[in-house]
Amino acid sequence: MSNLMSGSKILLECLVREGVDCMFGYPGGVTLPFYDAMYDHPLRHVLVRHEENACFAAEGYARSTGKVGVCCATSGPGATNLTTGLVDAMMDSIPIVALTGQVSTKLIGSDAFQEADTFGITRSCTKHNYLVKTLNDLPQIIHEAFYIASTGRPGPVLVDVPKDVFQAQGHYAPVNAIHLPGYKVHTDGHAGQIRRAAHMMWEAKRPFIYAGGGVIASEASLELTQLVETLDAPAVCTLMGLGALSSEHPNFISMPGMHGSYAANMGMTHTDLIIALGVRFDDRVTGRLAAFAPHAKVIHVDIDPAEIGKNRAADLPIVGDVKRVLSKLNKILLELAPAHAPIHADSRKAWWNQVREWKEEHPLTPEISTSEIKPQHLMREIDRISGGKAVVTADVGQHQMWAAQFIRFNSPRLWINSGGLGAMGFGLPSAIGAQFANPDKLVFSISGDGGFQMSLPELATIASYGLPIKIIVMNNGYLGMVRQWQELFYNNRLNAVTLDCFPDAEKLAGAYGFKGRTIESPADLTPALQEAVKEPGPYLLNVKVTPFENVFPMVPAGGAINEMVLGESTQPMAAAK
Amino acid sequence: MLQVISLLVENKPGALMRITGLLSARAYNIESLTVARTTDPELSRMTIVVDVEPHLRKQVIKQMNRLINVLQVADLTDSPSVARELILMRVRAPMESRPAVLKEAEIFGARVIDSSLEGFALEATGDSEKLDEFIDVMRSYGEIEVTRSGTVAVMMEARRLRLSSPVPTKNATNPQTTIDNGVLNA
Ligand SMILES: Cc1ncc(C[n+]2csc(CCOP(=O)(O)OP(=O)(O)O)c2C)c(N)n1
Ligand SMILES: [Mg+2]
Predict the structure, then answer these.
(1) Can you give the residue range of the structural domain that contains A136?
(2) Could you list the residue range(s) of the whole structural domain that residue B54 is in?
(3) What is the pTM (predicted TM-score) of this model?
(4) ipTM score
(5) SS3 label, residue A204
């Protein structure tokens, strides 16, 4: 006969059994019993300074490792503060288990103190959610939550636990099986479709690989690289997919879409076969859908059937896990190669010449000046130090796009950003999670002067845990991305975008007990970054950059992706060919 | 266009909310929705009629399939099925028009379920267009009040119910734990 345990202890036991070593949270009234149980428990709890950041930090942990990130908040305001993070994880398919406290079961529905309908509120922010009504259900629900969060198309799952469930006493009965009869996970692609795909790939004259976050989620980088090399096709990675194929791979031609490279967008426009892997044909990638890749057939591989045909019809759909599908596909491609590879060898060669020409015509080269620090210059220097190996988290705005354009990622799970939701305030807290998960890695957090100020409270978390994060603020004095749109599309009527007050970085960091510095001369850039990296603890580097720089290339919203604005003086240019 | 969907759903808390929430979040208009237990009390059968652009029909089904409490979704719009709706109607009918009202009810196959000095309570089933006509006709006799059930439908061909089988938890494979045989040793 086993000992009686509290619901809180049982919950901790479930977390340990799921392999959780660290969670990010913020306590409150109804989670008191849970925090009391943690008091003498080995599981590490990281106290952040705002619940939104607990979820972002859990995302940083999950995005940099592939493991489920765990966050915890109290009822009412704690739970509502989590929602932005949950939606973010939902949009980018990040596995998160969020635990929230709830008022006691007898009080639910009475508008009790700090009661909120968390179950109702988070219905649309989660892949699935639960309200635990009795302790008996708790272990089963927790294990289901981890299973749902981490399988199929990953996503956030929330478990709302009333105070009396934390307090109730019961026996822990191990849960050995999960039975969710309606939960459909499609992992193995259809064998016939995979074979057809292989034929289409060899038959294409101008194949083009479009790889996204799904490749990273399914840990399919190796298989992707093999595919790229077998076919010798040009490949792009989306904002969510950067690092899936090494940025240094000769076939990598940068990111497509609104701020993608010229070659990437021209390639998409002129290809006759898009090989879409773990992507969702997001509007930021496709521009005006009707004009997107007009000559292309589409092979679309995704684990979520709902993504296939949602925005762009697929000529050959394959529902399955990208890794499993590609490992089968690669074998068949090799089998077929001797007979099929030579058929279109000449066309393939011409295609590569064309792609290289596009790359050379309008390469992504950083602007550099001797009198002021150009934002692109900053990113290039960070790239130089990282050498494709550092974890880089970004916030949302111009700096995010420049970072994506100029920083190399030689493996997956290094580039961490809020792609689908574009949630400002994401960069700094996600770096906290990434640093906890990768204590020995160099972690850069790059934010704008706007987004950085949304995450200010987390400087305390960084200081208190002594996290050696290199906090880089790309300070242009504006909500730069919004300013850019006002300049380009609203007659430069700049409104509510000026950030004319920014704290002294040295004093700010000093107030938290770590080093900080502001620079504005290009000559200081490299030494300052080196100093930051050498510092064993956190470092805040505030980099004043050219205020009015715009991100190019740019596809104006609603435009076709081959109609890019390439620079300040150029008009939207239609594809020449 | 109107799309008729039949769903088999687990009777779990919030299941209905998930379905209606999904439809509204994706801006699909619900024309009608019915739900009731099946012979298995753990499951419910729903018939939903949504007003949706034809090219989005597949997407609606796929989105429903993503819900964990949904065991089966079928698009009945073009497949062999029968659909019926029930209406309950109160008709105010003065003495002189009562025989005509009854006659009309008979033509539409409606039944009188209550009668008072004021008028009748009628019950009718049929397809929705037929019921629309019935309502129009009855309105010409006097004030009416109508409650419609919304469409309920059933497939005419059996479709195999594909359910996921149980999977082992990490528990079975992860020996790391702080308790042994229920005794805490942290
Ligand atoms: C929470 C949130 N609010 C508003 C926005 C809209 N928005 C997108 S980019 C941007 C400007 C960001 O400014 P800053 O952080 O200084 O970065 P910059 O663009 O200057 O690099 C804003 C306000 C957003 N993405 N997220
Ligand atoms: Mg800025």
Answers:
(1) 5-170
(2) 2-79
(3) 0.95
(4) 0.91
(5) coil
